Prior knowledge:
The complex is a heterotrimer.
Chain A lengths: L9 E15 L2 E14 L3 E5 L6 H8 L8 E9 L2 E2 L5 H7 L4 E4 L3 H4 L6 H12 L4 H14 L5 H4 L9 H13 L5 E5 L7 H18 L2 E6 L2 H7 L2 E6 L2 E7 H6 L4 H8 L49 E4 L2 E3 L6
Parallel strand pairs in A: 3-8, 3-9, 6-7, 7-8
Antiparallel strand pairs in A: 1-2, 1-4, 4-5, 9-10, 10-12, 11-12
Helix pairs in contact in A: 4-5, 4-7, 5-7
Chain B lengths: L13 E10 L12 E11 L4 E5 L6 H9 L6 E6 L2 E5 L4 E2 L2 H4 L1 E4 L13 H11 L5 H14 L16 H13 L5 E5 L7 H18 L2 E6 L2 H7 L2 E6 L2 E7 H6 L4 H9 L6
Parallel strand pairs in B: 3-9, 3-10, 7-8, 8-9
Antiparallel strand pairs in B: 1-2, 1-4, 4-5, 5-6, 10-11
Helix pairs in contact in B: 3-4, 3-5, 4-5, 5-6
Chain C lengths: L1 H31 L33 H37 L1 H16 L2 H12 L3 H27 L3 H8 L4 H37 L11 H8 L8 H28 L9
Amino acid sequence: MHDTSRIDDAVLEADQLSLFLRAGRGTELKIVDSVSFSIARGEFYALVGESGSGKTVIARSLMRLFPPNTLRMEGRLVVDGVDLTTAPASRVQRMRGRSISMIFQEPMTSLNPLMTVERQIDEAIAVVGGMGRRERRERVVELLADVQFANPGSVRSMYPHELSGGMRQRAMIAMALANNPSLLIADEPTTALDVTIQEEILQLLLRLRDQHGLSILFISHDLSLVRRFADRIGVLYGGVLMETGPAHELIDHPTHPYSRALIDCIPRRREAGKRQAGIDGLVPGVADWFDGCRFAPRCPRMAEDCRHGRIEMTPTQPAQVARCLHPL
Amino acid sequence: MPAPAMTIPSAPVLRAERIGKTYQGRSRLFAQATGVTALTDVSFEVGPGEILGIVGESGCGKSTLARIIVGLEQASAGRLVAGDATLVDVAAGIFLPPAARRIQMVFQDPYSSLNPRMKVGDVVSEGLRIAGETDRRLLADRVAGMLRLVGLPAEAASRYPFQFSGGQRQRIGIARALITEPRILIADEAVSALDVSVQMQILNLLLDIRDRLGIAVLFISHDIGVIEYLCDKVIVLAQGKIVESGSADAVISKPSHVYTKKLIDAVPRIQD
Amino acid sequence: MQAWRFLELKFIVGVVCLGSIIVLALFGGLVAGHDPNEQNLLFALEPPFGPEGGYLLGTDHLGRDLLARMTSGARVSLAIAGSVVVLSGVVGVLVGALSGYLSGTRDILIQKVVETFWAFPPILLAIAILAFFGPSLTNVIIALTIQRWIPYCRIARAQALMLRSREYISAAKIMGGGTVWVLRHHILPNLLASAIIIGTFTMATAILAESSLSFLGLGVPPSVPTWGGMLAEGRSYITRAWWLAVLPGLGIFLTVLGLNLLGDWMRDQLDPKAALNLS
């Protein structure tokens, strides 16, 4: 459809991507609805949304992190030239780690508590093969230095419980980068960390992007964080992409009323006696989606035509598109 | 209206004097028991209707402080005075039981903070029932009143927690805390698990409740933006010690301690 | 989809197995028309559906009606197993919940006691108790309960340990809730589902154990017909009158199978994580 952000050198391209979760007994729930966006080589792209927006499902569908036969994809989702919606499982399996890697919110759950950092990273390298033991050893140290461990030599032999939260996340990143992926998916990687550590991890991701031309798909609920670090942003609501555009432009001049409302919700200094407004109402549940704009019932600019039919993405600013009939 | 806390010389609702907490390590066969210090010399005051923010990173001791104030844990040093009642005086061996302190708490996790097998009405009325109230009519009336106060319909009482969203559950938690008419409400990261749009609703609810009931609030958070929005005064904790305190405006716009500066600089903010 | 059908199958077969035994216990006597201890040597060793005397399931070596005796056996088995399940459930869940909730030194002490009980081979302990106190209905129930409360206790403890750190329990404590309040309102209701699941499995083992004791002549007094006792008597006639041993064996088999299937089904339905590997 209308996607002004289509790029020639795209590492990831989602085109009218819909995701359906099989709920058993022949029923399906549409959890992501016709989402289109693309990520260029070396781009830091952020998908932002509240819980239930579908941001995590999109990230996980890229890694096919679902039990077999529970997720159905429609549309196109191309990474490194391979369409994940049609590629056989074995092809996707081979892409994991090589083309696409992922880091999670809680690194402790994805690290094996019984293995040293070196063994875990080594295992990630060995899966792909083609390297001798000596070479792999050097590669581990190189990776640990890459994620800015001051002394990779000693971190190597440590177990996950000996590392702090921030160090674990670095170790995870080192593992994710072991086979030079072109796309790194980061699913709220700093939410469980202290703010000062969060800053370090994000600076690290930016540096890795610049050094290796890594593309990053960053999943987050934190708009202020994303404004500071991302190149472009996609705002999701109720499984629908509401607005995309360059980070600074989108957040400083949002054109979709939902983006505006979300930004206005970020708490800041309060004048005596004044209140910042939240968004009234609730995020619609997956089971009771309706026609028209999903945000309409909570939207201050809602008009009659918002309640019906499909609303398409339309350009609202030179580099911004929004799915809104009455943009700001 | 937020109370201009610094100017009214009213008696504090809560005064903490040099609170300390050391966890006793277990002594092993060939090793001396070594203690871990969680809090050292924490002193502060909260006035009536004042919202005090307690800021710090994980492990700084802010949750331990909350647990000591409500009585879930015992302090190893210091005094805690509420109005004219001494809640804790370690030197004199005074530790008032939790229910007698009239301090209630709102928790972080909207899921694990409500018993999934209890109806909302029973959740909210629990404090009164523990105190021995059995009159069903009176309990139902009080529950309805509390639910109205936190912006939920009275019918909510007959439903189960899983039928509510995260933000609504936090409202239920606030209703439960307020039903026993506490003098102080402690909110431990009460909005950090919520979506931004819901978070603002709960923050505004806390402000409304403060304005209507004149209750003092201790608001524990790691989120500088939230603290700036909500709090009158702030104390910054690092490694169990207060490194900075003062009015929220002053501390956040002109932090004097290195740690506070680092903390505030690390928070990305949207300039208006 | 496949798993779903399998689940339903478990439920249906379980209900049929157990249901047939319950029907037998309730209405078998009406159909039989004989007293279970009434002897009629003229019709001894009559096969099931035999032509003479109108004995639906045949007779034993003393000419006693096998249907009437099976009914009595079903009643005894279900009554004993039911009492054992309730008794051990109440004791086990209470002790376990308390142990887990209190934790610390008191928990360690309680767990030592539990381990001591657990250390004895179950049937041996039951035999010792019955040999010492003599066989009676009450003594059989006590002998079978003495170890069967332990699985309840372990699971209740594990769950209570997990529950005690829930924020709603902190909230109750801050409002002045003591141990009894917290156990009654917050811990025990959350243990109910897993207790019921363990109950079905416990009932199956209790029925097997009761039959074993009766088989060894240590169960209820010989005047009360039981499946185990019938099995022991029928053993000597196995070549001439297969039904004497097969029918009570079938009764035990159907009951145990039915209970296990239903227990499995309930575990899948109610709380998949509740009774995981802890028994």
